[in-house]
Fold:
Amino acid sequence: MILQTVASPHARAGESVSVVMLKVVATLVPATVYGFWLFGSPAFWLWLITIASALAGEAVCLRWAGRDPVPLLKDGSALLTGWLLALSLPPWAPWWIGVVGGLFATTLGKQVFGGLGNNLFNPAMIARIALLVSFPVQMTYWVVPAGAPGLLDGLLITLGHIPVPDAMSSATLLGHAKTDLARGVDLLHTELPGHAFNWVGARVGSLGETSTWLIAAGGVALLTMRIITWHVPVAMLAAIAVPAAIGHAVDPARYIDWTTHLMSGGAMLGAFFIATDYVTSPSTRAGQVVFGLGCGLLTWVIRTYGGYPEGVAFAVLLMNALTPAIDRLIKPRVYGRTFTGKPASVQKGKSK
Amino acid sequence: MGLRELLNGVRWGVHPHDDHKRPAADVPLRVMPLPARLCVPLLQHVGAPALPVVAVGERVLRGQLIAAAQGNVSAPVHAPSSGVISAIGEVTAPHPSGLPFSAITIELDGKDEAGEPLTPQVDPFSLAPAEVSQRIADAGIVGLGGATFPSAPKAQLGLKLSVHTLIINGGECEPYLSSDDSVMRVRADEVIDGVRILMHATGATKALVGIEDNKPEATAAMRKAAEGFASIEIRPVPARYPMGSDRQLVQVLTGKEVPSGARTASIGVLVNNVSTCAAIHRAVRVGEPLYRRIVTVNGGAVAQPGNVLAPIGVLIEDLLRFVGLKETPARLVMGGPMMGVALPHAQVPTVKGCGGILALTAGEITDTAPSACIRCGSCVKACPMGLLPLELSAHIHAGEYDKAEAKGLDDCLACGCCAYVCPSHVPLVQTFYHAKGEVWKRAQQKKRTEFTKSLAQARKERLEREARERVEAAARRKAERAAQQAAAQQAATSASANTAGGASA
Structure:
């Protein structure tokens, strides 16, 4: 018999890239579906449009690069990017926000760097920041999760044919706090729109933001499936919570408490799904801890002292830029070598 | 770090969910009936190939020397059974290339007539360590864990470097394989005796036997056999690939690391495999050379997987015929699935280092086309040496071999953990094999260039020296001539002066 001959190893662990991506997507499903229920069909249409645009952007770039887009689209990375971007958008944002964001994420955010594995920044987050900076009004137009419209009405809202009544809009919790602080009203005298610990997530925020518990549950599922490790999420959440707790203890009128910090904005989504992105985070355990700490600390700093009420996307992008430096500086010690890479010294026998 | 790693204290390596060791490990050891023909290779060890000492047509007996060791690092080869030498020539090597290598082919007569034992039976502990090593060398014992380093020079090295601890490798971490497991279960007393003999030969005062905790029967049998020998300790170690790698086993058992680029002996330990110890027992106590061993035959295509005591040099097709095949295997592998070599076909003989033959089905070898690296870091977590496989691979693909070397390419064990866990199926370990070859080739090229340069330099110097010498010689001749002329002139003038003087006088 003639056999095909190849090099070892002759066995492989089963997980392929697309299985990993699809598992991540699966852990996002509960929070997403709950978001649809909370914010109604406009959220669903926006989600669909964003993902379709992300896939289209990827396909066009791959076609231009002379590669067959179909097998590469199947790796699920563009789907995940579009999905994560959709979860970070205002649920009633107009259709073109989804189109611009989706296209931006996979073309300028990913394919210009050379496609999967080569991008320096998280594609979903860079698209979100591009949208936020370019279209600040549409990107901060939040609706109160009540009176969800039907499927068709929702589509008309997304397409811009039905104007959204002003009475439905409100600021997010962090946005409200920021505005009041800027007006000189301290946090002890402000009336926050709903509390972050609201279990049903019935408060103002992006599509995947208010159902914090479902996002966190998805993150725990990722941990148990060993798709991510604890290093990034724990470090990031700790680095948000610790300064927040200290600040609140020192001056509760100026600093939001740590539970609100963890439960609002993109903290959970960022810690479990965005900052843990393989491509744009360091590859060593120690590096991931440093990266997570940086993401968390920057998030708190931007939220507390910066011009924007929410800082996860900015923080993650800033740390993405530092990832190559972290990877260069923090390396595991090679067996039999010192930390500087020199071979360890030889002790002669009979030392015991 | 996951919970299991935290509990084990072992953060490297991989843990295949199904190690495929059972049921092959649990069925009783079978003895393979003699085949019609054996092809005994001359190179079954690292070092120089053995030199044939028999001729075609000659009849040989079981245990008879058929090829002698050549050089310091080499091992002799013995006839596994009685028969007539039919050929001394090339057969296919157990290597994916399918290239030929030299072997002695014996047509067996089926009588299995034994020759004289190698040495008289005496108490090995009454012999000098050097004599024990000589007996090990005469029996052609090599490391049976797969590295096949001749055991006698290793023992002598241990003696020279004052080794204090023997590490006995009962790890057998490769999935599917259970030949060491089988040796420890069936021949625990022989293994322990071999360990004691080896301690005597190397001067070590302590022996630690590391056995993976997925072999409880072997551990129990070895514990029982080691009772009463206080210097031999049986130590269960976590079942985690590549626990059977000497560096990893040394680290787990002694807490020490072998410095990069050094041998384990440099920290006072010597690693030997359990099957090697059993072979040393037989060589020194009975005078039996190494001509057979236990081979695990396993894989989805095998009808009756198990451990088989088979003569060395048996063709894989005969071995597979003995255990039966359920289906045509998609791949034949000598060794385990992690580091074993794929065989070009089944007309390949076994060697001393062959602990397993796998006939794998298409479902067991999931070959997928590689996709882009997503920098997930799985390879970094899996690497038992603390290397960054994704970074090494990137350097190699960019042609930056010197950078890859600086980042520890030489430290790579080629254990395959990185390629095993890679979700993108990037052929990492294959890349490192290639790079090591390339680095070696470049080093050779550099050496050659330097040699040529030194030759050219020498020629230049020689030519210059010759030219200088010619000039000097010419100058000297000229000076001599001038001196002669001057002398002649002097003589002439003085003569003329004399005559003139004479005339004047």
The longest strand of chain B covers residues 83-92. Chain B touches chain A through 83 residues (CB under 8 Å). The radius of gyration of chain B is 32 Å.
